[in-house]
């Protein structure tokens, strides 16, 4: 029987001791093995380390940064340390909700060597009122490319990619903060094919410290910059640029704070 490839799960965390336990549990509940879980802790306190130690699992490798590196450099540090053929990403406040997530994605990548990036659809849970929204993503490589300049077509915590290719192109770029994942997908799409499972593999938790008008404004401003950079690599550049300038204008208006949770620009998002 062919030996399964090792998968490395990289989790960069910062003062998220309230959520990290559930994230780790969702990885350890996966049907797939072998795997290693690399936790890069950029926190200014030790609560996360205490929670990780409670698991007593050899698969978990905990690394505390001696000096604050920030999210992007912590991710790249985890990728550099990873021994796996594949890297799976999980944010510290998200969790996987399908026990066969890794098994399905690895099977797909092993059977389709021309694909280098695989994600899925997901669910958003608003912590304040427990409301949920389905988060559907384009599935085929063709549809992903059509959406690439309009908005990020992947859920970061759902993706798995080939490590050597990502290392070869330099990993996440620090100059693309907030949209470092979107920028990486743009570069990967120039090399190979991409796919999203239509199934829900991940739950994204929206809470007080991960959503704000300021963060959305920065995301959209940086997004417009990379749209211009990759305008020749993906279709519908002018429409995508116009679309994103309209979004930026909306969030610049005074009433946008009140409307933030009511208006969704993604036509694929549907309320449950």
Number of helices: 10
- The backbone outline, from C-alpha atoms, is globular
Q: What is the helix fraction of residues, given as a range?
A: 25-40%
Largest sheet: 10 strands, mixed
Number of strands: 10
Strand content: 15-25%
Instruction: Report the average pLDDT across residues.
Output: 90
Give the CA-CA distance, first to last residue: 43 Å
Structural class call reads alpha/beta
Helix-strand string: EHEHEHEEHEEHEHHEHHHE
Low-confidence stretches: 261-272
Rg over alpha carbons: 18 Å
What does this 3D model show about the protein?
This protein is of the alpha/beta class and about 270 residues long. Helix content is about 35%, strand content about 25%. The protein has 10 helices and 10 strands. Strand 2, helix 2 (about 45-55) and strand 3 form a beta-alpha-beta unit. The protein is globular and about 50 Å long. The relative contact order is 0.15.
Structure at a glance:
By secondary structure, the protein is α/β, with parallel strands linked by helices. It is 36% helix and 23% strand. The radius of gyration is 18 Å and the shape is globular.
């Amino acid at each position: 029987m062919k030996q399964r490839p090792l998968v490395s799960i990289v989790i960069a965390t910062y003062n998220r001791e309230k959520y990290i336990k559930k994230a780790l549990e969702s990885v350890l509940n996966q049907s797939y093995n072998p795997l290693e879980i690399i936790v890069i802790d950029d926190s200014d306190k030790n609560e996360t380390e205490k929670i990780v130690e409670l698991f007593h699992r050899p698969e978990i490798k905990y690394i505390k940064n001696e000096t604050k590196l920030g999210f992007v450099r912590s991710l790249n540090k985890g990728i550099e340390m990873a021994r796996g053929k594949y890297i799976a990403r999980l944010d510290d406040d998200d969790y996987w909700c399908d026990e066969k997530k890794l098994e399905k994605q690895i099977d797909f990548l092993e059977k389709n060597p021309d694909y280098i990036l695989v994600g899925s659809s997901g669910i958003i849970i608003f912590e304040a009122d427990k409301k949920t929204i389905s988060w559907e993503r384009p599935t085929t490589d063709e549809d992903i490319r059509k959406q690439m300049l309009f908005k990020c077509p992947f859920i970061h915590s759902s993706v798995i990619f080939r490590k050597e290719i990502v290392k070869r192109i330099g990993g996440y770029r620090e100059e693309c903060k907030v949209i470092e994942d979107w920028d990486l997908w743009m570069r990967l799409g120039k090399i190979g094919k991409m796919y999203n499972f239509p199934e829900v593999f991940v739950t994204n938790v929206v809470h007080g410290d991960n959503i704000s008008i300021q963060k959305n404004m920065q995301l959209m401003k940086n997004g417009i910059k990379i749209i211009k950079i990759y305008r020749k690599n993906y279709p519908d550049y002018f429409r995508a640029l116009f679309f994103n300038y309209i979004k930026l204008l909306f969030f610049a208006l005074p009433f946008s704070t009140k409307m933030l949770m009511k208006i969704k620009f993604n036509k694929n998002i549907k309320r449950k």
